[in-house]
Design brief:
The chain has ten helices and 14 strands. It is an alpha/beta fold. A six-stranded mixed sheet has the order 7-13-9-12-10-11, with helices on both faces. It has a three-stranded parallel sheet with strand order 5-1-6, sandwiched between helices. Strands 2-3-4 form a three-stranded antiparallel sheet. Helix 6 links the parallel strand 10 and strand 11. Keywords: Signal. Pfam families: SBP_bac_3 (PF00497).
């Protein structure tokens, strides 16, 4: 009986040790399945010809190229991206995913590739001085459903938080007076306001500088190494900076100073 148990244990250990790494699956498939919103400019969105474009799209495409596979993009609302990743619908999410302890318990992450902070968005003619989330007590604040900013807003006492599928919806409500302010990524705001063509402006930065990285299923060390190698190579040879400056005018892989709480 003990011998039989030992054989079972050895078989289980052996099966675990030789379990296929995600890198093997991607290489055999010949494509890297990449999920993003497709409605999150300037990170990822559809141009006038309905083609995916943006900072994250270019970064993900370059990662796939360096892995010698084709990029295969899948779009979904933000609220479904991490759930889809967890269920194995795609390999990675390249959509400015903040690295949090809660997410690290479920996923592994690449090295950070962008740094930014949260920032308020207000109407262009706003006379009230909202310096932080505490100033919004009793006021209505719009955020993206399931985002870091939604969690941040809900943690602020007395703020009436309204969640939306994406930025276009809450920017419209903000412009028409249904909201007092909105909250999103400081890197996104100038582009989003310009594209929306609404009477809005960037407000005060709030919270700490956050690191964004690429999540994927746990237990795939070879895959993680390959993703990090691609990102590291892009930073080393100037490719990353070139893409970043194109979309933001700065290198977003460099952490800025902390914002005010």
């Amino acid at each position: 009986m003990k011998k039989w148990k030992a054989v079972l244990l050895l078989t289980a250990v052996g099966s675990h040790a030789f379990a296929a790494d995600l890198l093997d699956t991607v290489k055999q498939r010949g494509a890297l399945k990449i999920a993003l919103e497709g409605t999150y400019p300037p990170f990822n969105f559809k141009d006038a010809k309905q083609q995916l474009t943006g900072f994250d799209v270019e970064i993900a495409t370059e990662i796939a190229r360096r892995m010698k596979v084709k990029p295969e993009f899948v779009t979904a609302e933000w609220s479904g991206l991490l759930a889809g990743l967890q269920s194995g619908k795609f390999d990675i999410v390249v959509n400015q995913v903040g690295v949090t302890a809660q997410r690290q318990a479920v996923f592994d992450f690449s090295q950070p590739y962008t740094y930014s902070s949260a920032q308020l968005i207000v109407r262009k003619n706003e006379s009230r001085d909202f310096k932080n989330l505490a100033d919004l007590k009793g006021k209505k604040l719009g955020v993206g459903q399931g985002s870091n900013y939604a969690d941040m807003a809900k943690a602020a006492a007395g703020v009436q938080v309204k969640t939306y599928p994406g930025a276009p919806e809450y920017l419209q409500d903000l412009a028409t007076g249904r909201l007092d302010a909105a909250l999103n990524d400081s890197l996104l705001i100038p582009f989003a306001i310009k594209q929306a063509k609404l009477p809005l402006k960037a407000g005060a930065p709030v919270g700490e500088v956050a690191a964004m990285a690429i999540p994927f299923a746990k237990g795939n060390p070879q895959f993680k190494s390959e993703i990090d190698k691609a990102l590291g190579g892009m930073k080393a040879d100037g490719t990353f900076r070139k893409i970043s400056v194109k979309w933001f005018g700065i290198d977003v892989s460099k952490a800025p100073a902390a914002a005010k709480k």
